[in-house]
Design goal:
The chain has a domain at about 10-70. It is elongated. It has twelve helices and no strands. Helix 3 packs across helix 4 (about 60-70) and helix 9 packs across helix 10 (about 145-150). The mean pLDDT is about 85. The chain has helices at about 15-25, 30-45, 50-55, 60-70, 75-85, 90-95, 100-110, 115-130, 135-140, 145-150, 165-190, 195-220.
Length: about 220
């Protein structure tokens, strides 16, 4: 590089940030994280309203709000991890779906278990659905198992080693185990908190029958 072009701009501090924002978009692909930090600085450091920032940068207010949320809704620890590159912008987006009191635990879970972006997204959904401490801990301690239980779809493959009756039995066992796993997952993670008061009188007999049949099945299996 033998020459370097430069242009002098007489702007105030707000204008300087706007210039950084717009010039970076011309010279390279927009960086969501850099944009978010600039908007955060304009709002929190310079005291501008979101509408003013939108006018200054030539963007819609909803766009400004989304970028601002990437920084603003995070805990200080998550914000620092994002600044240092330990947390990706996509991961930060997922964390903003949680209450601040749960973000650090979810971030630690993602780090310890090396969760992908998609796995973190699914784990966040399960944490959002958790209504008890036990449900939350299960997701945080065994995220992949919790995700698998929530997403498993059973498809039986014919086993040539088994007879026709054996394959039929194996298929029924597979379907039963699949249903039991999903019911167990629902009771532990979502549970009855999803149900309305009007559901109780209708479903209570079915739950009692489930308990009875499970007990009888355990006895029969032992024989």
């Amino acid at each position: 590089l033998s020459t370097l072009q430069a242009r002098s701009l007489e702007v105030d501090e707000h204008g300087a940030k706007a210039a950084i924002f717009n010039l970076n978009r011309i010279s390279s692909k927009p960086n969501e994280l850099e944009e978010s930090w600039i908007i955060y600085a304009l709002v929190h450091d310079d005291g501008l309203q979101q509408v003013e920032v939108a006018e200054l940068l030539g963007r819609h207010k909803s766009w400004i709000n989304r970028r601002l949320a990437l920084i603003e809704r995070l805990t200080d620890e998550a914000r620092e991890a994002l600044r240092l590159g330990l947390l990706t912008p996509t991961g930060a987006h997922h964390l903003t779906g949680l209450q601040r009191c749960n973000q650090n635990s979810a971030m630690q879970c993602a780090t310890e278990h090396a969760l992908t972006s998609r796995e973190l997204s699914e784990a966040v959904k399960l944490l959002q659905a958790s209504s008890t401490h036990e449900q939350t801990q299960f997701v945080l301690e065994k995220p992949r198992e919790a995700i698998r239980q929530a997403q498993d779809r059973y498809v039986y493959q014919w086993d040539p080693r088994l007879s026709t009756a054996g394959n039929r039995t194996a298929r029924r066992l597979g379907l039963l185990l699949d249903c039991v796993t999903k019911m167990n997952h629902w009771l532990r993670l979502s549970g009855r908190s999803e149900l309305q008061a009007c559901d109780r009188s209708i479903l209570v007999d079915s739950f009692r029958k489930l308990e009875l049949e499970t007990s009888l099945l355990t006895e029969a299996n032992g024989d």
